[in-house]
Amino acid sequence: MKCLFIYNPISGKNKKLMKKLDYIKEKLEEKYEVVDIVPTEYAGHAIKLASEACGKYDSLLFSGGDGTFSEVIKGIGENKMAPTLGFIPSGTVSDMANNYKIPRNIKRALDICLKGNKTRIDVCKINDSYFAYAGAFGTYTDSTFKTSVKMKKKFGRMAYFLQGAKEAFKVNVSDLKISVGKKNFTQESSLVLLLNTKSVGGFSRFNYKNKLGDGRFDVVIVKKPQIKTPIGIWKLFVGGVHKVSDNDNYMVFSTDNIVIDAGKEVSWNLDGDEYHASKIDVKCLKRRLNLFVKD
Q1: Most buried residue, 56, 96, 109, 286, by most Cβ within 10 Å?
Q2: Confidence grade of residue 288 (pLDDT, cut at 50, 70, 90)
Q3: In which region does residue 287 sit, left (phi positive, over 0), alpha (psi from -120 to 50) or beta (all else)?
Q4: Closest Cα to residue 36, out of 51, 46, 24, 18?
Q5: Around Cβ 81, how many Cβ atoms within 10 Å?
Q6: Domains 2-116 and 130-286 equal at CATH topology level
Q7: SS3 12
């Protein structure tokens, strides 16, 4: 069997990981006949490496943050020759690690990969691209890609809140044309969340009622009445999805497909990265990939 291990050398706490590369290689060679270890060298490099790994490797292990996880998903897409994935989290937040209870301890995370227990995970397809766990558009959603690496290393997940605080009273409103199944409607909105996750921003209970692997994602839309002040949005982020309900202020539901037309090109946040489109068609690809997990 063959294994590729890739790591992001500038992610969160990967200085610790780099000191353990010899240990990782030694442990992997106990299970695999071929072990290749490659660092990512630029933004998007993991996409290329993951794409090239399909059909060549049995397992693809990777270390980094949610951004690295997202790049791997983008690289594999719907390739039928996809290797089994193994995640050693080292990012600032690591929502995907929270979702699947993968420890941030390098040796323990590696041990999970070596034991070989697997689960099937959903992947979200958006137009011609993919994301792993969260898509967002509207107020505050650009804070993750505006936050500098230096800030993230210094303040951890609090760096995102500090960035968001700079724009605390800057609220954006858009007229959106939305299609869900046979239902078509127009909605003024200040925030849209597409959540294939329990954890958001490091808060593992933010959307804890989400059922991972069911082929559906949760949709939360903050309606216009809430944009007079940011209170409604802050209530959502502080209390979590379970604290809001489908009413005059919010729209909350789950689906396997949604089409949203903003009428002009806008910036979406997909797993922390920026994605530009005027219209998006999002589908959930049920149980698309194998991931090494504890149980």
Answers
A1: 96
A2: very high
A3: left
A4: 24
A5: 10
A6: no
A7: coil
Residues 6+ positions from 242 with CB-CB distance below 8 Å = 207, 208, 209
Indicate the SS3 state at residue 293. Answer: coil
* pLDDT, tens only, 230-264: 677 777 877 889 888 887 788 999 999 999 999 99
The CATH class for the domain spanning 130-286 reads mainly beta
CATH homologous superfamily of 2-116: Probable inorganic polyphosphate/atp-NAD kinase; domain 1 (3.40.50.10330)
Q: What 3-state DSSP class applies to 190?
A: strand
Helical ranges in the chain per DSSP H: 14-18, 21-29, 45-53, 66-76, 95-99, 106-115, 143-146, 149-155, 158-165, 231-239
Q: Indicate the pTM of the whole model.
A: 0.88
Whether residue 35 is predicted with pLDDT greater than 90 in this model: the reply is: yes
Least confident of 6-10, 60-64, 69-73, 221-225: 221-225
Beta pairing, strands 134-138 & 174-180: unpaired
Torsions phi, psi for 140 (to 5 deg): 70, -5
160: its two tokens: 């995102």
- Class of residue 93 by CB neighbours under 10 A (exposed 0-12, middle 13-18, buried 19+): buried
> Where exactly are the structural domains of the chain?
2-116, 130-286
